[in-house]
């Protein structure tokens, strides 16, 4: 039997989900070690700036302001005020609703991306033929369909515009011909308020209509209408993509959510500082004002207004966790606002352009190859309905045979039967045979009497 290699590079399959094993023990470690597209890549610069500013303020308070009563009291008043101000911002509601809206918009744009596969499959079946005209017709129609989508991508994606900055670049890529460029430029002059993206689809439909009218392609009216509906689907998807580029996500909402998060953590630079009452402060010398840990020099102040600023930790761990959550939300939303850019989570439009063009041409050229029906391999093996397909273990062996052998070993063997059991089974078999023989004799005698036959069955 022919052996096929099942080894593929990780980059060969773009549809492989990065969350392949979510229940294994090391999933959390593997998840946190990913860098591309991770929240750490989005936040490390902002978090670094935040921690530097926090450390500078903490250093000034501990070694400069603390020994001057006026400076220390003014700094502590600012920290108390900032802490109270940060509690007034509905940060969770603003960021949660904002990110939810952005993600829904982003996902809808994914579902909007046009795919020419359906049109190519219909062309192969509705416009068959291996002659030069039919093959050229199918390829030209698919080139026009892909060209229309590329013209749309040029308007919404700076990456595609950089790849195809003008019509000459499309001619060099063999997506357009010189006379088609002249025709498209004349159309652009007639529509100065909008760029022409629908013209190639119109050319493709006119080619099919002309071929049908001249009898070169024989397509019934209902089938032709079904074929034209595929162009309508591509144009609808193209127009929806243009609408997303035309009407952006509300700028005011983006500003409110983003500014609120930044102001929240600007206040947190002061409001999350760890403050220590001065030793000369008479308000904190009474028993019960602070809880002192025995054997150490730490005093955990519980009295207002120092309650939210104690105990004294040099590193704001939980503030960093809060920064990771809220600022991470905002960064994710900013990353998804324009999925046609060049960020990690943006659509790979250049890949999509190449993929659609290649698949389109491969499909329409498959009509040149005759497909012969072969014998079904299951029927050839004497199998009507396959029970279970085999699995492959890392060694490449068929694990179904090993499973059967293992099941046979696990099945307990029956113990040898005694002479009494064997005799009982023989008596039962004899009685069943005698009963079956008596029934056959009675049935035959009844049939002979009804038919007027007097032959003695017993003889």
Task: Explain what this protein looks like in three dimensions.
The chain has helices at 27-32, 39-63, 69-86, 91-112, 117-126, 132-156, 158-163, 167-172, 178-190, 199-213, 221-246, 251-271, 317-336, 349-365, 377-380, 399-410, 419-450, and strands at 290-292, 299-301. With 459 residues, it is mostly helical. It has a domain at 117-247. Strands 1-2 form a two-stranded antiparallel sheet. Helix 6 (132-156) packs antiparallel against helix 14 (349-365). The longest helix has 32 residues, at 419-450. It is elongated, with a radius of gyration of 39 Å. Residues 1-10, 293-298, 410-415, 422-427 and 443-459 have low confidence and may be disordered.
Radius of gyration: 39 Å
Topology pattern, helix = H, strand = E: HHHHHHHHHHHHEEHHHHH
The average pLDDT is 79
Q: What is the makeup of the main sheet?
A: 2 strands, antiparallel
- State the end-to-end CA separation: 62 Å
Given the structure, what is the number of helices? 17
Structural class: mainly alpha
**Uncertain ranges:** 1-10, 293-298, 410-415, 422-427, 443-459
- Report the portion of residues in β strands: under 5%
Q: Largest sheet, order of strands side by side? A: 1-2
Helix content: 55-70%
Shape: elongated
E-strand count: 2
